[in-house]
Amino acid sequence: MSWNEFWQRLRNSLGIKRRPSVHVPIGLMRVNALVTERLPGNIPLTRDLLKMLEHGDNVVSNDDAVQTFQLPLVPLDEQLRRHPA
Question: Residue 45 and residue 41: Cα distance in Å, rounded?
Answer without folding.
Answer: 11
